[in-house]
Amino acid sequence: MMFNKIQKFIVADILKNRIVLLYTLLLAVLSWSVFSLEDDSHKGVLTLLNIVLLTTPLVSIIFTTIYLYNSSEFIELLLSQPIRRSKIWNGLFWGLFLSLGLAFLIGAGIPIFLFVGGPIAAILIVMGCLITAVFVALGCLCTILTRDKARGIGIAILLWLFFSLLFDGIVLFLLIQLSDYPIEKAMIGFTALNPIDLARIFIILQLDVSAMLGYTGAIFKAFFGTGGGALIGFFLLSLWVLIPYMISLRQFVKKDL
Amino acid sequence: MINIQHLSKSFGKLQVLRDVSLTCASGQCIALIGPNGCGKTTLIKCILGMVIPNSGQILFKDKNIARDYQYRHEIGYMPQKGRYPDNMSIGQVIEMIKDIRGSKTGLDESLIEAFGLNEILDKKMSTLSGGTTQKVSASLAFLFQPDVLILDEPTAGLDPLAAEILKDKIIRENQQGKLILITSHLLSELDELVTHVVLMQDGQIRFHLPTSSLKEKTRTTNLARAITHVLKHDDVQ
After folding, report:
1. Could you give the C-alpha distances from A55 to A30, A153, A161, A175, in angstroms and in order?
2. B75 contacts in A (CB within 8 Å)?
3. Which end of chain B is flanked by fewer CB atoms within 10 Å, N or C?
4. pTM of the prediction?
5. Is residue B124 classed as helix, strand or coil in its secondary structure?
6. Cα separations (Å) of A2 from A101, A122, A257?
7. In the 8-state DSSP scheme, what is residue B58?
8. Residues of A in contact with B82 (CB under 8 A)
9. Contact A73 B85 (CB under 8 A)
């Protein structure tokens, strides 16, 4: 009961936030212009996918981290009220996820739905929401790791950099170094370590453009393209939400504030 | 009402509370005083469950507060520097706390009226001055008629008129048998309010005495003099 109340107030608070409004607007402008410029909606999806997978994690993780640091006094106020600690953290996570998810749904979801439609639109929207949840959870973790706001935001930026740029560099490096060995199957396991790549591969495989990925793509297709593989991909992404969130929750419950 | 037993807390290497034991009974109005960094705020935060002690326990109405949160229904807390979500108005904040506490009846809105907050309910929290924010914090602490009030530097930042209103309120609530814990450095202000004094130094409680016996022991007539006397001479235990 109370967890819903906190959630409700946080959503109301965040939805009025200028950054979130800007983020919605940015997504809307990007998606509308991508779909207006590209005749082929599949190509449009690919372009948008790359933009979304760059901006959504960045905004989600940084906004979450800054918002949580800025609400430290508000969290203190809630703590002095008769509420269980886990409910406060739960409310914060859901409040952040719901409002950032809503921003994504309005900004990118509507044009995707209008221009693409069908199961691909649904998958794209679900993945966008999942990626939002993953990076809100990682933002929660960044905040709990250190008391220092500057350091916390630094960790958030590093995490984003790692998952969106550095990780791909490492993968490329490994691919070249180990090109003499049959590492394609191992690559599937390796991708699970990066939520952004998981989402990207998941969507690309639905688009019939996986031929672009070459032989590795064929192996991915054989794995993630099947119903069971899709479930595993979905499950892995859910784990990426659950594990960082549970770690942060455990820390928050015994933290001194 | 509140029974603190052998409480210790350290942040890293820094030992903030050393084996603190203290009993607060209802009807007392206790001034918690001591130099900066002596552990006053940490002690208060332990009672509120915000800081978790390394050892020792706190009993609230004979029940251990560790892992409990229901007891906070009976505490009103006014923080030293309250901060609220910027986008919310005064009215929304008050409604939110009412909602969270789950009580819509039996509310004491006298402070909201006395501070004139009724006329500015639409004002956003981010536009409020420090003093007005303090008025909101004070109103929220007294709103639910709790049995225990914990006030951290309540009058700092308030204008003289508002400070007077708050002090009158504290005296009235205390006369109704409520337990009130105040930390403050303004000793002259505390003089007319408090019935007991707790002096903390270096994370330990130096004494817990009724104001009358403290004045008697130090042969002084007001609290400020009594405390300065104690700090200069080590003879009062």
Report:
1. 11, 16, 12, 27
2. 80
3. C
4. 0.85
5. strand
6. 22, 32, 21
7. E
8. 73, 77
9. no
CA torsion sign, A252 to B1 to B3 to B9? positive
Distance CA B148, CA B58 (A): 14
Q: Does A82 sit within 8 Å of B69, measured CB to CB?
A: yes
Residue A74 to residue B45, Cβ atoms within 8 A:
no
Q: Which helix (H) or strand (E) is A25 found in, with range?
A: helix A18-37
Q: Distances from the Cα of A101 to the Cαs of A77, A127, B117, in angstroms?
A: 26, 11, 36
Our CA-based measurement puts residue A126 at a distance from the nearest CA of chain B, in whole angstroms, of: 30
Please tell me the distance in Å from A80's CA to the nearest CA on chain B: 6
CB B152 within 8 A of CB B119: no
Q: Is B50 on the interface with A (CB under 8 A)?
A: yes
Which amino acid, A225? G
CA distance B229 to chain A (A): 35
Instruction: For residue A3, give both structure tokens.
Output: 């967890």
Find the mean pLDDT for residues B114-137.
92
pLDDT in tens, A232-252: 888 999 999 999 999 999 999
What helix, strand, coil percent values describe chain B, rounded to 5? 40, 25, 35
| DSSP class of A156 | H
Cα separation, B33 vs B195, whole angstroms: 13
Interface test with B, best of A67, A77, A254 (most B CBs within 10 A): A77
Give the other-Cβ count within 10 Å of A176's Cβ: 8
At residue B36, the pLDDT reads: 86
Cα–Cα distance for residue pair A96/A73, rounded to 1 Å: 17
Alpha helices (runs of H) in chain A, residue ranges in sequence order = 2-15, 18-37, 41-70, 72-79, 85-104, 110-115, 118-145, 149-161, 167-177, 184-191, 195-206, 214-224, 227-253
Tokens of B202: 């270096």
Calpha distance A88→A65 (Å, rounded): 16
pLDDT digits (tens, 9 = 90+) for B60-76: 998 898 888 889 999 99
Contact residues on chain A for B52, CB-CB shorter than 8 A: 254, 256
- Distance, in Å, from the CA atom of A128 to the CA atom of A31, rounded to the nearest integer, reads 13
Three-class DSSP category at A40: coil
Pairwise CA distance, residues B1 & B23, whole Å: 8
Specify the amino acid at residue B207: F
What is the DSSP secondary structure assignment for residue B28, as one 8-state letter?
A: -
The DSSP output letter for B77 is E
In the numeric block, the tokens 């330990």 are attached to B204
